[in-house]
Amino acid sequence: MKQLVQQSDLNIYFDDLTEELPIWELDEDEAERLWRETFGARSTVFFNLPDDSWVETERGVDIGDWRPCLNEEDFEPFRQSLSAGVPWRAQDEVLFAATCATILQTTWEAFLRYWPGFLYLRSDAPILLSPQHPRQCVLFFPGGRTLFIDASQSK
User: Fold this and answer.
1) Can you give the pTM of this predicted structure?
2) Could you tell me which residues come within 8 angstroms of residue 19 by beta carbon, excluding any fewer than 6 positions away?
3) Residue ranges of the alpha helices (H) in the chain?
4) What is the predicted pLDDT for the residue at 155?
5) Position with higher pLDDT, 16 vs 147
6) What is the SS3 assignment for 107?
């Protein structure tokens, strides 16, 4: 079961949510199942992923620094960096994995619009995934560095 963020306690992190661009919070069981399938059962957050995880072994492409844009509340430059650095389509589903138990579901278009809210919720290395693009993700590091990882061509 999932719940609209507008109807949950997480709505405090997002300004001006619209019905056209919904954000869903997965229930804890579904979030944990999805995390296990994607990253394995031995981890709960990015920092304890196994060393042999595709997220850990692939080299990422630096796509920008989110921290200055968030601190200065000038969101457009980083939105443009994300859009240019990640080859996903507007309607592609994305999953923002804050932890193994907290995963939000929306579209790439909605994520681009509301990215500050996602990072207000969790800025300690959350992982953004898209089911349409297996073994690709965006990592948001606490200092602001952002990497796009594409392991789709690797084994």
Assistant:
1) 0.91
2) none
3) 28-39, 54-57, 66-71, 76-85, 108-121
4) 61
5) 147
6) strand
Q: How far is Cα 29 from Cα 88, in angstroms, rounded to an integer?
A: 27
Is residue 42 packed enough to be buried (19+ CB in 10 Å), middle (13-18) or exposed (0-12)? exposed
Which of residues 40 and 62 earns the better pLDDT score?
Answer: 62
SS3 (DSSP) at 128: strand
pLDDT at residue 134 is higher than 70: yes
User: Can you read off the two tokens belonging to residue 27?
Assistant: 């229930």
* Residue that has been written with the tokens 């996903």 in this structure: 88
For 86-96, give one letter per residue: b (16+ CB within 10 A) or e. Answer: bebeeebebbb
| CA geometry: angle 108, 137, 16, nearest 5 deg | 30
Tens digits of per-residue pLDDT, 35-57? 888 887 677 778 667 777 877 77
